[in-house]
């Protein structure tokens, strides 16, 4: 579906992506994790055409899209839900969602309304505030809106940059479920960037760990979860972090993973 | 809990936006040196609560008292002067400055230079600048982004910008810092380091109130927690008390039993 | 570990201003044309106004389209104090600056509650009101006919009555102004001002009294403009309201931007570019198009402006900076130029 | 000091050209007035040079556009004096600019022949003449007095006065206030309109209520046309009088039929063919008109005429006195009498650096796209 | 009765002036909405429209053809303006963009002098211009044209921005161009579209005005400034509100002029404006801005 070869991207003089090779199959959910500043957002940005790579190639369904700008990539069905939500702040929630379907409004006008209903159903929280300007929503509500808007695009490849950011645990679960369902039922290909390795790998088919602009480890979720190298590279030395007891330190309630 | 210990007192605070009651008669006390968490589902009113405490939004009713100062009705800069600063959920770094200047601006209140002494660049100004710069560097080192000091702040990755905001808030020698989702965008290792930073600052006498959705952080860092839902306070207590309260678990955490791996 | 040295953030060396001043003040040794001096005097007037505006626009991010008002207030204060009441020009100058600052304060208090373009409009509107008052208060200002007979400046019996002397007078003021405002920019005050442009809420949250700082910047810029107006009045000895209309305000903003508002030096560069470009076109255009009149000049003027700003959106000064840094021996690596506005995406969200 | 330095430059008698500077507003708000002036000056200098120049020396004309801006005017003046070292300067299209320029001519002792009209240009506050400044157009007071004379003859004693809100209008307004009483005329309403007026009906509704016997609209072409059109639209059926500033063909275009019947004090130039043959100006007026219209393919305008007068007065002085600035000044002041120019017959004197009278103007009526001499 | 007719007269005048400002203000707002640029060259489009249509009519074209052609020509000028000046500088800061538009307006004026000279010109009224009497006040058919066109466009704008997808997409472009691009909206194309459309509308404003107040190369600046004012009074981001703002200003001006003094016109209307701004800092008809922290 999407094939990335030796991708190099720069921000000005800063060499951020240093040769990424990645292949994503149709209907697959791939998680990309990595520490702060490792280039995750840059990678998604490059795939979506926001940044142009200096070197390497991106091939989508046998078609080279390496140097196509966002404008040409979006209509092909590749959609990015960006970092920091980027909602249209002075536009109502409803119109925000509808604008998500902009690139296909001429082609299938009829289905848009149905999709809109579906998306609103997925986020009951948003249902109460459809006429409010998007910028007045709470952080998490904005995040839902951004995701919802991405879903409205009905893309073939959906990329999400830290979708769980700012969302309550309960909602994160829902979202992950929705993503999984999208893969399974609609055959959408999903690339998911997450800070939280566990949460991401839980839903993903496969995962890659990005460090300093390179993919250092990749494999199926199960493999990664149990790969000691990953544990070390990613969590630092003590992988027991999740076992940190409560501050009061009296009782070990924590045995179950929270997220 | 003795009264002298209470540093921040939130009393029946309410905020109404048109028809929406975002915060509904919320009250709680924060003790000196405490790390206090506010949790709750999205849209519960946590950020709005912070906005009222720091004066960004006027409250509809109720009041906030910090030490002996009534904060209600004061402007943010006045509240900062009293010793309360904050970070922002949606990141508000000064994008036209380098990282270190951001932090030096954070130290604004600790400085005395005025228009005329600055214009004439009296020796005391130079001295103060130097001191502030050292202080700013120290703050950056603390949160671990000193190596980025001379970069323009918008080029920092998201996570580092969060750290920058915390360093900036700390630079003003506040007594209380409010953190709105400090861990968002940090991975577990990074959050852990930040927790340590915060715990260390607490030892220096700082008090923290923070909002966070990352339960690991909340559970491991906070002394006490207030839980909000739909603008109302639905619970309060130590992490374990909260964690065992079925009402809270249902409203916020979800049923923990099924620990499904979806894939 | 990073070196903790202020020089890494602020280039505050006195070398720049000193070299510039020396070169400038030596100019009369080589040039004796009064015309050239007049040009430099004009540049000086504009540079002084732009200097204040750079602080306001470039650093506090507030667009004023009413700066000619203060320029006019200074000019008329001086004219009235010296021409009508026969007092010393210095009193006029100081009176003008105080009045300018006071008016800036009064106007600023309601105006700075407004944001962005509303502020631009409010200052524009205020400018038009004052401009109309200059015209209508005929007894005081002479109305549209103008104000005659403004005396020249004298200092302890030394008359600034020719271009050479005036050249020195004006540029002493300009350089003092430049150093003063550069010092401000490189200090707590400057950071506070810039933080307002960066993010008002955050600025407020770290304890910057935004209103207070905006007002200070506005008042200071008003004082600079007023001072410049006073100097103008004593130089041309005749003023009329047309000098202080909305177009003049717009041209001031133009100079600030073309010079580059990220540095105080930009104000001098901008003023010089504006005046020199006009003069050079006046010289060149008839050489190539002998039959052409003024229309060609303004056309080229407009086109050159646009082209310059397209290629150098941060104004001309950063180009000079690059040039200088080439000459300088590389003691320390020079900071990369600010990427102001270069990537609005990264700062996210709102774009208004 | 530097004054003597720059003044000495002009005395180089060995140079084989005579430098004259022309400073006009050929762009900006006053461009419609400045352009014909500049064109005329270029035309007659060329002609003079073709005819052998002055005492065998060619005239070199340097011209500047002051963009209708006072600062630009000052800069241009400075340049003309100190760089070009012009013997004399002709120009200053609008009064504001001329007023800003003249201190330079006084300081540097260079004859300045103004083509802008304010009386303050050639007269100091105390009524004495400025030493180095001469002014070719009629004073506003001449035009106003001519108008008042006319009104008195017609027996209109209650009038409405409207002027454009710039120095052209307010200057005349001051003159009007000064002289109206003398002619037994009273203004029942006095007001202003903007030079950029789009619709003057609001003011006119008030004028109408004041019930005047005649209406004076003092402005230049564009704004006057708008006001006149509005007067007709409101069906205010009163005599309308204009200023000498509307004596341009443009008024026919802009005001169309509304202009019919408007009467104004104007120079003889535009009604030259209707003048009686005994009129001393008739011949030169017709000649100028013919030459200008041939050269530029557009009708003459009164504003073009002033540089003509200035130039030929100067030529006489140059022929007699060479390029010595002081001598020229003295000659201009003392030896120009009964000079027949386009604007009128000039008699300059040390007391009067304009030398025209109200009779240099005639009342002209607009009739179906034509100028008609009234009287 | 006398007073009545005066008030009505003033109202007519105010509406006429207001409609002229409105036509330019709309273009102003559209450009602002789509590109975030405060286009101070907007008035020059009116100037081009007026002068081009006069030339076309003098060349023998019938009025309707001249109107259409000159609108088209000015739209092309607008498109060129967008491509050569706005587009390459789109990432610059707000003041830089403002100054670029000022630079363009200066250049446009220079071009206009080159082509048409400095003399003002005039256009015949669209239709027979016998004043219509109404309670002793007169209304000119040309004013009706002008007011009518402004109102027609008002409704068109309301429909376009609130009801059509493209209208919403246009708004999205300025609110967040980055996100707009991610949605497949092409801000560059929108910007080209918006600027040439506004240029066309500006041209129309100029054409409608010239029978009323004549046309000359320098008519643009003042019109542009007043339109700016109108747009801001309306709230800057909302085309219908800008039109309303323009009428408010026109009427205010005409009433001060008619009831008090013309000299005070600008003072009164600007003081009033400042007052409005101080009371309602976001403009008279602004919607919630959607900004919070
Ligand atoms: N616009 C930009 N200009 C310059 N450098 C940039 C820009 N955007 C990102 N960078 C740099 O590129 C590197 C990678 O950034 P990126 O945002 O891709 O990281 P990330 O993995 O998404 O981090 P995070 O988890 O914090 O979001 C960082 O070092 C950052 O400083
Ligand atoms: N200015 C406003 N106008 C209208 N409604 C608002 C405004 N600000 C906030 N709200 C609403 O108030 C509610 C509380 O918002 P708040 O931002 O405080 O939530 P939160 O608890 O911080 O949520 P999150 O965890 O998602 O950040 C939300 O439903 C939000 O939509
Ligand atoms: Mg990222
Ligand atoms: Mg929140």
Automatic annotation (TrEMBL), chain A:
Pfam families: ABC_tran. GO terms for molecular function: ATP binding; ATP hydrolysis activity; branched-chain amino acid transmembrane transporter activity. Residues 2-237 form the ABC transporter domain. InterPro entries: AAA+_ATPase, ABC_transporter-like_ATP-bd, ABC_transporter-like_CS, BCAA_Transport_ATP-bd_LivF, P-loop_NTPase. SMART domains: AAA. SUPFAM superfamilies: P-loop containing nucleoside triphosphate hydrolases (SSF52540). GO terms for biological process: L-amino acid transport. The keyword Transport applies. It comes from the Bacteria. PANTHER family: HIGH-AFFINITY BRANCHED-CHAIN AMINO ACID TRANSPORT ATP-BINDING PROTEIN LIVF. This is ABC transporter ATP-binding protein. It comes from Peribacillus cavernae.
Automatic annotation (TrEMBL), chain B:
Gene3D superfamilies: P-loop containing nucleotide triphosphate hydrolases (3.40.50.300). The keyword Transport applies. GO terms for cellular component: plasma membrane. Pfam families: ABC_tran. GO terms for biological process: D-alanine transmembrane transport; L-alanine transport; L-isoleucine import across plasma membrane; L-valine import across plasma membrane. Keywords: ATP-binding, Nucleotide-binding, Transport. Residues 8-255 form the ABC transporter domain. This is ABC transporter ATP-binding protein.
TrEMBL record, chain C:
Residues 331-352 are annotated as: Disordered. PANTHER family: BRANCHED AMINO ACID TRANSPORT SYSTEM PERMEASE, HIGH-AFFINITY BRANCHED-CHAIN AMINO ACID TRANSPORT SYSTEM PERMEASE. This is Branched-chain amino acid ABC transporter permease. It is found in: Cell membrane. Keywords: Cell membrane, Membrane, Transmembrane, Transmembrane helix. Pfam families: BPD_transp_2. One of its GO terms (cellular component) is plasma membrane. One of its GO terms (molecular function) is branched-chain amino acid transmembrane transporter activity. The chain crosses the membrane at residues 12-31, 37-56, 68-85, 91-109, 116-134, 166-185, 217-238, 250-277, 298-317. The lineage of its organism: Bacteria, Bacillati, Bacillota, Bacilli, Bacillales. CDD domains: TM_PBP1_LivM_like (cd06581). The keyword Calcium does not apply. It is a multi-pass membrane protein.
From TrEMBL, chain E:
Keywords: Amino-acid transport, Cell membrane, Membrane, Transmembrane, Transmembrane helix, Transport. The keyword Ribosomal protein does not apply. Its main location: membrane. The chain crosses the membrane at residues 6-30, 37-57, 63-81, 93-116, 143-162, 192-215, 227-252. It holds the Pfam family BPD_transp_2. One of its GO terms (biological process) is amino acid transport. The keyword RNA-binding does not apply. InterPro entries: ABC_transp_permease, BCAA_transport_permease. It comes from the Bacteria. GO terms for molecular function: transmembrane transporter activity. One of its GO terms (cellular component) is plasma membrane. It is found in: Cell membrane. It is a multi-pass membrane protein. Belongs to the binding-protein-dependent transport system permease family. LivHM subfamily. This is Branched-chain amino acid ABC transporter permease.
């Amino acid at each position: 579906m999407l094939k990335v070869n030796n991708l190099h991207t720069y921000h000005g003089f800063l060499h951020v992506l240093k040769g990424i090779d990645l292949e994503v199959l149709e209907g697959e959910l791939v998680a990309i994790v990595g520490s702060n500043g490792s280039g995750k957002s840059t990678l998604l940005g490059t795939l979506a055409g926001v940044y142009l790579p200096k070197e390497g190639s991106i091939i989508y369904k046998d078609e080279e899209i390496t140097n196509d700008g966002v404008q040409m990539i979006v209509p092909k069905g590749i959609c990015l839900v960006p970092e920091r939500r980027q909602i249209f702040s002075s536009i109502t929630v409803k119109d925000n969602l509808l604008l998500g379907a902009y690139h296909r409004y001429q082609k299938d006008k009829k289905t848009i309304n149905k999709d809109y209903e579906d998306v609103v159903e997925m986020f009951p929280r948003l249902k109460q505030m459809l006429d409010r300007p998007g910028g007045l929503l709470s952080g998490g509500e904005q995040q839902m809106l951004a995701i919802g808007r991405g879903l409205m695009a009905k893309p073939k490849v959906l990329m999400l940059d830290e979708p769980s950011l700012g969302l309550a645990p309960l909602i994160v679960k829902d979202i992950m479920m929705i993503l999984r369902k999208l893969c399974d039922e609609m055959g959408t290909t999903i690339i998911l960037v997450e800070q939280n390795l566990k949460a991401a790998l839980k839903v993903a088919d496969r995962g890659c760990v990005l460090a300093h602009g390179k993919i250092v480890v990749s494999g199926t979720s199960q493999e990664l979860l149990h790969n000691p190298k990953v544990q070390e590279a990613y969590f630092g030395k003590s992988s027991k972090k999740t076992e940190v007891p409560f501050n009061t330190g009296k009782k070990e309630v924590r045995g179950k993973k929270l997220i | 809990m003795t009264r002298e210990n209470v540093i921040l007192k939130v009393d029946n605070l309410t905020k109404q936006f048109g028809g929406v009651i975002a915060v509904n008669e919320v009250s709680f006390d924060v003790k000196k040196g405490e790390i206090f968490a506010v949790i709750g589902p999205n849209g519960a009113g946590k950020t709005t609560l912070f906005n009222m405490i720091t004066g960004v939004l006027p409250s509809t009713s109720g009041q906030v008292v910090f030490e002996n100062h009534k904060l209600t009705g004061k402007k943010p800069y006045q509240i900062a002067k009293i010793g309360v600063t904050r970070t922002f959920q949606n990141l508000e770094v000064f994008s036209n400055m380098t990282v270190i200047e951001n932090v030096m601006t954070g130290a604004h209140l600790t400085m005395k230079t005025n228009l005329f002494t600055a214009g004439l660049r009296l020796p005391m100004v130079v001295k103060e600048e130097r001191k502030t710069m050292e202080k700013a560097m120290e703050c950056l080192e603390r949160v671990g982004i000193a190596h980025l000091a001379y970069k323009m702040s918008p080029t920092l990755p998201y996570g580092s910008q969060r750290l920058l905001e915390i360093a900036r808030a700390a630079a003003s020698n506040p007594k209380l810092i409010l953190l709105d989702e400090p861990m968002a965008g940090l991975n577990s290792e990074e959050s852990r380091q930040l927790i340590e930073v915060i715990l260390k600052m607490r030892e220096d006498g700082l008090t923290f109130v923070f909002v966070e959705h990352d339960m690991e952080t909340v559970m491991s860092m906070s002394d006490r927690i207030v839980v909000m839902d739909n603008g109302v306070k639905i619970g309060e207590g130590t992490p374990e008390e909260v964690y065992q309260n079925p009402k809270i678990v249902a409203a916020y955490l979800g049923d923990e039993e099924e620990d499904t791996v979806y894939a | 570990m990073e070196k903790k040295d202020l020089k890494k953030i602020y280039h505050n060396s006195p070398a720049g201003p000193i070299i510039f001043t020396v070169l400038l003040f030596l100019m009369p040794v080589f040039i004796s044309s009064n015309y050239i001096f007049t040009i430099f005097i004009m540049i000086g007037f504009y540079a002084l106004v732009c200097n204040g505006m750079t602080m306001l626009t470039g650093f506090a991010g507030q667009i004023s389209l009413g700066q000619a008002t203060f320029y006019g207030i200074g000019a008329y204060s001086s004219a009235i104090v010296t021409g009508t009441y026969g007092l010393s020009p210095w009193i006029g100058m100081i009176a003008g600056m105080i009045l300018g600052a006071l008016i800036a304060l009064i106007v600023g208090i309601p105006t700075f509650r407004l944001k962005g373009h509303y502020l631009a409009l409010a200052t524009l509107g205020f400018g038009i009101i004052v401009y109309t008052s200059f015209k209508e208060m005929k007894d005081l200002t002479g109305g549209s006919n103008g104000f005659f007979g403004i005396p020249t400046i004298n200092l302890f019996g030394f008359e600034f009555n020719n271009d050479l002397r005036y050249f020195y007078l004006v540029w002493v003021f300009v350089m003092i102004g430049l150093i003063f405002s550069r010092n401000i920019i490189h200090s707590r005050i400057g950071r506070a001002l810039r933080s307002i442009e960066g993010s008002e809420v955050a600025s407020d949250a770290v304890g910057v009294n935004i209103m207070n700082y905006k007002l200070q910047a506005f008042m200071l810029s008003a004082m600079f403009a007023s001072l410049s107006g006073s100097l103008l009045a004593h130089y041309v000895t005749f003023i009329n309201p047309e000098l202080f209309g909305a177009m003049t305000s717009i041209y001031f903003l133009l100079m600030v931007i073309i010079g580059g508002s990220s540095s105080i030096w930009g104000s001098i560069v901008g003023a010089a570019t504006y005046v020199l470009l006009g003069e050079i076109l006046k010289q060149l255009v008839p050489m190539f198009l002998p039959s052409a009149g003024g229309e060609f000049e303004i056309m080229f003027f407009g086109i050159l402006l646009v082209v310059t700003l397209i290629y150098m959106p941060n104004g001309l000064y950063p180009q000079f900076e690059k040039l200088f840094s080439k000459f300088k021996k590389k003691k320390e690596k020079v900071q990369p130029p600010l990427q102001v506005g270069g990537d609005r995406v990264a700062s996210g969200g709102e774009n208004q | 000091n530097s004054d003597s330095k720059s003044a000495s430059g002009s005395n180089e008698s060995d140079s084989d050209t005579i430098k004259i500077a022309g400073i006009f507003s050929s762009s900006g708000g006053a461009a419609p007035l400045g352009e014909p002036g500049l064109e005329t000056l270029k035309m007659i200098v060329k002609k003079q040079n073709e005819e052998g120049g002055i005492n065998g020396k060619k005239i070199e004309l340097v011209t500047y556009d002051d963009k209708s801006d006072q600062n630009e005017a000052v800069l241009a003046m400075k340049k003309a004096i100190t760089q070009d070292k012009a013997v004399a300067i002709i120009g200053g299209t609008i009064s504001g600019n001329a007023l800003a320029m003249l201190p330079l001519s006084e300081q540097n002792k260079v004859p300045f022949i103004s083509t802008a009209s304010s009386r303050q240009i050639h007269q100091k506050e105390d009524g004495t003449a400025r030493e180095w400044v001469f002014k070719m157009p009629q004073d506003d007071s001449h035009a106003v007095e001519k108008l008042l004379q006319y009104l008195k003859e017609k027996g209109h004693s209650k009038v409405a006065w409207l002027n454009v809100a710039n120095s052209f209008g307010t200057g005349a307004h001051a003159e009007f206030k000064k002289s109206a009483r003398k002619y037994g005329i009273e203004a029942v309403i006095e007001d202003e309109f903007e030079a950029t007026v789009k619709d003057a009906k609001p003011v006119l509704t008030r004028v109408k209520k004041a019930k005047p016997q005649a209406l004076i609209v003092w402005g230049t072409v564009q704004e006057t046309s708008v006001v006149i059109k509005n007067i007709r639209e409101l069906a205010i059926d009163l005599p309308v009088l204009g200023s000498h500033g509307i004596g341009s063909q443009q008024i026919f275009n802009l005001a169309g039929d509304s202009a019919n019947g408007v009467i104004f004090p104007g120079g003889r130039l535009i009604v030259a063919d209707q003048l009686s043959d005994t009129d001393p100006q008739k011949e030169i007026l017709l000649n100028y008109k013919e030459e200008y219209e041939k050269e530029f393919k557009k009708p003459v305008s009164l504003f073009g005429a002033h540089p003509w007068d200035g130039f030929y007065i100067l030529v006489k002085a140059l022929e007699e006195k060479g390029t010595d600035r002081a001598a020229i000044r003295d000659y201009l002041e003392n030896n120009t009498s009964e000079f027949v120019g386009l604007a009128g017959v000039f008699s300059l004197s040390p007391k009067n650096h304009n030398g025209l009278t109200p009779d240099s103007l005639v009342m002209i009526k607009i009739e179906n796209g034509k100028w008609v001499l009234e009287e | 009765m006398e007073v009545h007719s005066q008030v009505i007269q003033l109202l007519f005048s105010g509406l006429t002036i207001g409609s002229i400002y409105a036509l330019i203000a709309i273009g102003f707002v559209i450009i602002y909405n789509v590109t975030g640029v405060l286009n101070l060259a907007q008035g020059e489009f009116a100037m081009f429209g007026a002068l081009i249509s006069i030339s076309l009519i003098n060349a023998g074209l019938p009025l309707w053809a001249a109107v259409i052609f000159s609108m088209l020509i000015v739209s092309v000028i607008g498109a060129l303006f967008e491509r050569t000046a706005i587009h390459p500088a789109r990432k610059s800061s707000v003041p830089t963009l403002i100054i670029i538009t000022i630079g363009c307006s200066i250049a446009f004026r220079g071009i206009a002098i080159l082509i048409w000279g400095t003399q003002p010109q005039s256009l015949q009224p669209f239709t027979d211009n016998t004043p219509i009497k109404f309670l002793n006040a007169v209304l000119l058919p040309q004013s009706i044209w002008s007011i009518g066109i402004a109102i027609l466009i008002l409704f068109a704008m309301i429909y376009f921005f609130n009801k059509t997808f493209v209208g919403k997409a246009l708004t999205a472009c300025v609110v967040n161009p980055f996100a707009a691009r991610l949605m497949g909206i092409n801000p560059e194309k929108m910007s080209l579209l918006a600027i040439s459309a506004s240029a066309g509308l500006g041209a129309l404003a100029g054409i409608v005005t010239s029978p009323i107040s004549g046309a000359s190369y320098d008519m643009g600046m003042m019109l542009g400034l007043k339109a700016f004012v109108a747009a801001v009074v309306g709230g800057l981001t909302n085309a219908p509100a800008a039109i309303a703002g323009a009428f408010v200003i026109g009427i205010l001006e005409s009433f001060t002029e008619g009831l008090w003094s013309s000299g005070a016109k600008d003072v009164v209307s600007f003081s009033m404006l400042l007052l409005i701004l101080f009371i309602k800092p976001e403009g008279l008809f602004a919607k919630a801005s959607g900004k919070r922290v």
